[in-house]
Design brief:
With 98 residues, the chain is an alpha+beta fold. The protein is built from three helices and two strands. It has a two-stranded antiparallel ribbon.
Length: 98
């Protein structure tokens, strides 16, 4: 989806969740989307897929996508996946010194 449609869909999903109060299992590869929508993010390993990390997203709603808390959760997930926020750079392996 294009950016505008994706943001509208996220907004609609949040509105439906607030009205219905049902549990939603949402599978995504979009880290920003996961932090914006979820209360809990399970980071999966490569194949064979296992749960690598269980991250609670305890941020108030509606989520401020520019807040330090939001950015910290996003960065935590990137690093849990072994990724860096710098293009072309890998994150240090889990448990290694910086």
């Amino acid at each position: 989806l294009d950016f505008i449609t994706r943001m509208k869909m996220r907004s609609d999903l949040i509105r439906i969740w607030q009205a219905e109060k049902k549990t939603i299992l949402f599978v995504t590869h979009d880290i920003e989307e996961a932090v914006q929508l979820a209360d809990r993010v399970l980071v999966m390993s490569r194949r064979p897929a296992t749960i690598q990390e269980d991250i609670r997203i305890d941020l108030p709603r509606p989520r401020d996508l520019d807040s330090p808390g939001y950015l910290a959760k996003r960065d935590h997930i990137f690093h849990a996946m072994g990724m860096s926020l710098r293009i072309g750079e890998s994150a240090p392996a889990a448990g290694s010194a910086k």
